[in-house]
């Protein structure tokens, strides 16, 4: 899927359609002091080996495309989820109809 880098869509804060900058959603950095992380690290400590099961069987082949939209006027960010796709391209070249394949 080829997604343009700018998109004209509705902003909740401006209450109007404005141009939004589009970026792909990325997972944030994991915090070492979060409760679950501390609990897991304490459980792993000592001579016990791996204490919790490691998931090896994946249910899905693709991930849903999650876009982060930033309003050009008020800089408010919102997220938009698109359908599943194996390949995502941000701001790639548009395909033209009557053009021969070039290698």
Automatic annotation (TrEMBL):
Organism: Anncaliia algerae PRA339
Protein name in UniProt: 60S ribosomal protein L44
GO MF annotation list: structural constituent of ribosome
Keywords from the named record: Ribonucleoprotein, Ribosomal protein
Coiled-coil stretches noted in the UniProt entry, renumbered to this chain: none
Residue numbers spanned by region Disordered: 29-55
GO BP of this protein: translation
Gene Ontology cellular component terms for the protein in this record: ribonucleoprotein complex; ribosome
PANTHER family assigned to the protein according to its UniProt record, in alphabetical order: 60S RIBOSOMAL PROTEIN L36A/L44
PROSITE patterns hit by this protein: RIBOSOMAL_L44E
Listed InterPro entries: Ribosomal_eL44 (IPR000552), Ribosomal_LSU_eL42 (IPR053708), Ribosomal_zn-bd (IPR011332)
Matches recorded under Pfam families: Ribosomal_L44
Domain of life: Eukaryota
Entry's family note: Belongs to the eukaryotic ribosomal protein eL42 family.
Keyword Nucleotide-binding appears in the UniProt entry: no
